[in-house]
Amino acid sequence: MAARGPKPTATVVKLVTNKPGHRPLPKDEPRPQGPLGKCDLYIRLKGRARTLWRVASGMAWWLGDVDGFKLGVWCSLQAEYERAPERATPAFVGQLRVLGSELGFDVAARTKMGCHGKTAPATKDTYFD
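^ that's the sequence the OP posted. Answer follows.
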């Protein structure tokens, strides 16, 4: 079943736009907790997919051990897309986008997940120098 309403706006966007609607900023946004552990699927990944796993698992600190297989599938699909983007069908690109969103690879998805981590600071200084 689809989620109701628009996707949540990222805290960064709310700060830049001066909190439209003057609602309070989210206090339960995910914060770094450490890298994802390697699962059985990691052993079967080869070449570019394995490199993508290492990069994504290092950056996607909000992922837990249960996300390992889904991340492996995303890495395989992304490696296949990078190998031959001209062969990608709309359905293939759709799968890649949906998996990326489920893993929290876009800001709105991370905000919506909001269940892993400590409170995020809610000041402009956090995001801008």
